[in-house]
What we know:
This protein is of the alpha+beta class and 168 residues long. It has helices at residues 9-12, 15-40, 49-59, 67-79, 86-97, 125-135, and strands at residues 102-107, 112-118, 141-147.
Amino acid sequence: MRLKKYLPEFISSIKEFQQLDTTVSVEINKLRDKLLQLQDNQFIETANNEGLSRYEKMLVIPYSEDVATRRFNILNKYNSTIPFTMMWLTNTLNTTLGKGNFLLDMNCNKYTLTISVVSSKEHLISSLYKDLRKKIPCNLVLNITTLAPVEIDNYVGIYIRTADEVKI
């Protein structure tokens, strides 16, 4: 940014003011760059190394060499602090387990949350428990069980009523 264009004509022709313009313009450009970077550091997608370090320190995230990994870790930490609602939990379970592969029971009086998972998704239970334990309120007891298929013999009964019609 040149200050010379803001000076009146009779002052801009003086040698001292020209030299002052050259010196001050360099400092003003540095200040402008710092302000723009400060603005960029307010957002995770545009933050530089200094801004990412500040986020990592606030969120207690370990340092990584790769900038893309650092951004991902910070965004993941921010996105994992979702307020807990039953709708959110249902959507999360629909996404991870598939619709219809679980039963959800919330007992508000006993502060227990029971999730029953079909046996075909049994391998996901431990990671699901770890993930949900971080996201649900800590006063809730989390129980995850397996739904096993039950084979029951089905008996069908039929009652047939017949009648003879007699005409006189």
